Every structure is written in structure tokens, then in C-alpha cells.
Design the sequence.
């Protein structure tokens, strides 16, 4: 399968714990995005990478959130000191180099904070 | 914050009928995209229309864009039960120079149910 993959698919954690999610984009895609989606809502943009550079970060992301994309390949999203309000589906998407704007989404990681 | 507002929030039709969903947005855009989401396949890109285009077709899909009214519509013709899903419009406002880098702002979606 050559689509976007995310790991884990589900994560249950206790409040205050740290969690890390991984996204593997389609191999030739240099742009990578993270979104968060809560029930009944559309996805909300969190951050964007072009190659290894993080070019934009949403104001939605508090200091507890950090994302990396070392070597411009896979990406990780870490949430420190999780809160119940962090419970959501975290979606990763990738897109080819400039000129094609459609995004290819992974299956998401569903986070539940208890 | 959500830029797009889809209308209706939910739509229930019979197989074979057409389904029309509308999307309104607030700021100028580089392009507007429609996505489908169901539990089986996640979010899937359907069609993209650029700000200088007024209508686009892809198979049974027809998208229109009216930038003066900041609105778009998605028409699905001859619907099938497999079209049952949530449909989202997503706007790409581009950067200050108007160039897209792909940051999408999604609406809340329309839940479409197609009855066999």
C-alpha cells in the first residue's frame, strides 16, 4: 500500500501523560500537514511541513504540541501533558510538490484522554 | 476556526436522485476543494476548482464556484448507496501573494445518506 499511513490508529491515555503519533507520507510527497478533527466537525489545520521545514503552525497548537519531520520523510506529532480536550482524531495528509494541491489523507489516530 | 459553512447539514435521498450541497466561505481563495469522508476510507479528495474557474466536472460530480458570492456547490448525479458519507468543502486561501501552499480550512460538512 503506497498511501499515507499513521501509527497508532488508536491511543488511550491518562490525563497528564505524553503521547506521540507518527505519519508516513506518500514517498514522493514533499508537503505534509497535520489536522485535528473532533466529532461532528471538519478537520482543523494544525501545522505544515515542506520537506523538513515547519513553515506554519496554527494558533490552535499550544506549547504542549510539537511536530517534527526529520530528513523530510516521516513526521511525528507529540502532545505533552495531555488534557481531556485533546481527545480527537489526528489526521495527517501529504501533497506532491507545488502545482498539485489535492491532499492525500491517512486513516488518522484517534486519541482518547481519560 | 471554520471558514466554510456547508448547507444542508444533513441530506437524505433515494438512490438515483441527485444530491446538491452548498458551501459558503468568508475570505478570498486560491482554490476550493471537496472531500468525502466515511468510516471505511477516511478523507478522500474528490475535486478541486481554482478561483478563476466557474465550473468543473468529474464523473458524476459537478462543482460550481461563484467568487463574487463566496460560494460553491457540489452536485452528485444519479446517487448510489455507496455515496453515503460526509462531504466537506475546504478552502485554500494561499499566502499573502495568493500562491497556494495547501493549508486547507474545512467546513463542518454535509452528511449525505442515500437509501437503496
Sequence:
Amino acid at each position: 500500500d503506497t498511501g499515507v499511513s499513521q501509527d497508532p490508529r488508536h491511543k488511550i491515555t491518562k490525563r497528564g501523560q505524553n503521547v506521540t503519533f507518527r505519519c508516513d507520507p506518500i514517498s514522493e510527497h514533499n508537503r505534509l500537514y497535520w489536522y485535528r478533527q473532533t466529532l461532528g466537525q471538519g478537520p482543523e489545520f494544525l501545522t505544515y511541513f515542506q520537506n523538513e521545514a515547519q513553515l506554519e503552525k496554527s494558533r490552535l497548537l499550544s506549547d504542549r504540541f510539537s511536530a517534527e519531520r526529520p530528513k523530510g520523510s516521516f513526521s511525528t506529532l507529540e502532545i505533552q501533558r495531555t488534557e481531556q480536550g485533546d481527545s480527537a482524531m489526528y489526521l495527517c495528509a501529504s501533497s506532491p510538490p507545488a502545482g498539485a494541491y489535492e491532499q492525500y489523507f491517512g486513516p488518522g489516530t484517534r486519541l482518547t484522554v481519560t | 476556526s471554520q471558514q466554510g459553512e456547508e448547507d444542508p447539514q444533513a441530506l437524505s435521498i433515494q438512490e438515483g436522485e441527485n444530491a446538491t450541497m452548498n458551501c459558503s466561505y468568508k475570505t478570498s481563495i486560491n482554490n476550493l476543494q471537496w472531500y468525502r469522508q466515511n468510516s471505511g476510507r477516511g478523507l478522500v479528495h474528490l475535486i478541486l476548482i481554482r478561483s478563476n474557474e466557474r465550473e468543473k466536472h468529474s464523473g458524476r460530480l459537478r462543482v460550481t464556484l461563484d467568487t463574487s458570492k463566496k460560494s460553491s456547490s457540489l452536485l452528485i448525479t444519479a446517487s448510489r448507496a455507496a455515496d453515503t458519507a460526509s462531504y466537506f468543502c475546504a478552502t485554500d486561501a494561499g499566502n499573502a501573494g495568493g500562491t497556494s501552499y495547501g493549508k486547507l480550512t474545512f467546513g463542518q460538512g454535509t452528511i449525505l445518506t442515500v437509501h437503496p
Remarks:
- The radius of gyration of chain B is 14 Å.
